[in-house]
Amino acid sequence: MVEILFLVPFLTGVLSFFLPSKPGRSMLVLTGAIHFVLTLVLWIIRPGALMPAYFMVTPEGLLSLSVISLLFLLISIYTTAYIESAHIRNEKVFIGSMLLFLSTMTMVTLSDHIMVMWIAIESTTLASAPLIYTSGSPKSLETTWKYVFICSVGIAMALLGSVLISLAVDAGGENVPMSFSALSAQAPRLDSMWLKAGFIFILVGYGTKMGLAPMHTWLPDAHSEAPSPVSALLSGVLLNCAYLGIFKTHKIMVSAGLADFSGTLLMAFGIVSILAAATFILKQGEYKRLLAYSSIENMGIIAFGTGLGGIGVYGAILCLIHHSLIKSSLFLTSGNILLGYGNRLIVQTGNLAGQMPKTFVAFFAGFVGISGFPPFGIFMGELLIIVGAFRTGHTIWAGIFIASLCIIVAGFVNQVMRISFDDAPKTVNFKEKARLIWPQFTLLATSVVLSFWIPDVVYLEIVNAVVSVGGGF
User: Fold this and answer.
1) Which of 196, 212, 356, 369 could make an SS bond with 376 (beta carbons 3.0 to 4.6 A apart)?
2) 3-state class of 138 per DSSP?
3) What is the pLDDT of residues 408-420, one digit of tens each?
4) Domains in the chain: how many in total?
């Protein structure tokens, strides 16, 4: 049964609240390893769900689950070393919450019922909130409440959207289960007016959690205050979970013949998000907030590509996978920078290349990848989206897209050069332990390998996900 994938981290997460610190760290890594093995098994065996009305393995869900599992395993290994060097106020709560966070995110990827999806995404908020409050400072408390409040308002709107879709079923006179698979199959018979209304609320609701502008305001603060391993999970994994809710609803719209409506909205929110990132990234003074605005940009790119349809959807899926790998690496590397310099401000850093050479290589390689340069996969994803925009006649949209990306890269280059090569205000005495370095290099290497070679079974799932929303070559 597929439910075991989220039951295992749930049970170990509850257990971790009562374990001493060192066994708790071992439990964190052990659970990550078990989860990764179970995910690999899922690619081979494809067992059915114990509750098939609520859970199902879908192409987009399996791809997201695989990314989540790999990231969590590597982040958990990094976390064990990070905890030894950083001050974690309540380690039991921290480790337990991380495992519960893994459980809820896994549930999102396996959810097929529209209300179970909503419950799972709301649960990710509750599980991750204690992680943002780890430091216990007044600023982190304010940020946590902001995160919970804004995301909960967004999730409430998504709930309303889910209810409106159920009204589309009733208005169409159909007796259709409220699962995404059933709704997609029967979409042409559903009432289009209620479907449109439902999609708007779901896009705004889950878009809030995904970090789409203008609903993105929680994201820079949360990434800035959270410990770096948590920031890696929030940016590399949580945003993907919210995207899944939008993607599956968009699949219903495509099946109902309303792709132009939902696609245009996705493109509009995507472009607004990219423009917002371009605006704020130029003058950003904190490197973790800089990475946060980069996440907003990439979520905008993914939304824009998904809305385009055609080859743009394939580009969006590639960007989704590679953004998770590269951005998680960057946030882990930012944890090393914070441990070394003791400050999040860019002006308080400098000469990273000379003082922390291994961290510098990971940081600079991550910058190259997230900026859309080869050999990393985001380059191909963005290129396919641009080609898709021109193919579909969205020339103006493509021009705005390209110009915004250029502005963002220029702003990013300026800040990365300061961190890497400017004179440092102080000498850093930081031991670059293997566990604080090789998880980042593994993530970056994975991105490079997937840029040149995608296993056939993975490629098939990507194609199935793309085709399900009207995409293709």
Assistant:
1) 369
2) helix
3) 998 888 899 999 8
4) 1
